[in-house]
Amino acid sequence: MYKLEEIIKQFPMLDGSKTMQGHPLVFLDNASTTLKPYCVIKAIEEYYSDYTANHHRGDYDLCYKVDMKVQEVREKVAKFINSEVNEVVFTSGDTESLNLIAYGYALDNLKKDDVILLSLEEHASNTLPWYRICELTGAKVEFVDLEDKKITVNRVKEAFNKCKNIKIVSFAHVGNVLGYEIDAKNIANVVHEHGAIFVLDAAQSVPHIKTDFKDLDVDFITFSAHKMCGPTGIGALIGKYSLLQKMSLFKTGGGMNVKFNKNMEVIPLDAPYKFEAGTLNIAGIIGFGAAIDFINSIGLDAIKEHELELARYALSRLESCKDVVIYNKDSNSGIIAFNRAGVFAQDEATLLNSKGIAVRSGQHCAKMIDEVLDTIATVRASFYLYTSKEEVDIFCDNLIKGGDILDAYFSK
Length: 412
What we know:
Layout: H1 4-8, E1 19-20, E2 23-24, E3 26-27, H2 38-50, H3 61-81, E4 88-91, H4 94-109, E5 115-118, H5 128-137, E6 140-143, H6 153-162, E7 166-172, H7 184-193, E8 197-201, H8 213-216, E9 220-224, E10 235-239, H9 241-246, E11 257-260, E12 266-268, H10 282-298, H11 300-318, E13 324-326, E14 335-340, H12 345-353, E15 357-358, E16 360-362, H13 370-373, E17 378-382, H14 389-401, H15 407-410
Helix pairs in contact: 2-10, 3-10, 4-5, 6-7, 11-14
């Protein structure tokens, strides 16, 4: 049984005292970031108040404790994602992870007229690093054709049949606007049959569904802690160890080398440590570990079912509202992308904000999605493990009721 009331009690942001525009807070922007439970906040506070020290920088007890804590979290991440411990690189989040792959792998391995295959629904973090690599190498970006707004195995096969120079394929596991999950395992098979590398941007999947690195057989997985009840500024790159070892250094400095000398000879540590130059976000790593423990205590299968139940309920209520356009009715996720007919997305979000409801509007950093949806912007409501049916009702009631943007400024 899903103990929602007990889960909600774990979040200070949901203690009933938080308001927006004089209304109780209804937080439905979880695809952007998630709220933090007490256990994550406490873990971070304990590091700062009880055992502050640097990582791999000292031979005293406090430093040793920090070293063990960081290693413990690395092991938790590996178990959570089903990778080897030495395949876990700590980064500042999904964006840095994708840049690390671009500059550490692609820059050395692509040449003029090689192709990077993307989709039109990719987030900026999974688009702009590849654009930059193309500028530096002469490679090109091509886009897979979508099938009913989805990336399918057949469309990926067609892309390889059309183009023999595809070297890297990089897709979101779950899209951040429409919430469609791709068949990552079978796409990986197609990619590897053609000798290419498959990068999986899992920022929107790891917090919601079981994501098995070894079973999917992708080459790299990237994700952020802040989308899974963890702190901001920390995330992970998971990469096959053989590839990590071959990759060039993305940044250099203290902590990532065995030695260097005046002759400019540098011997880096083995992966993953060679990618972790400088002082790590230690507090973030410790909070990351606490977030994994929290999610494991609930279970990803239970979280997924809870989100889907809420999404189905919301869609059933909104079916009667003829001027609300839903763009992803068949999405198997807790994301609902919509617009009110004739209303600009930001105006609708502003109106909902005036009722205490936090949603996102605009292009959601996926600035080519307009070519898929034939609209310049959408409103996005996204649910998570602590979202209640009552909050969904408040959202649906206000959406069905409608109103004018001026109501956001003049209504009491």
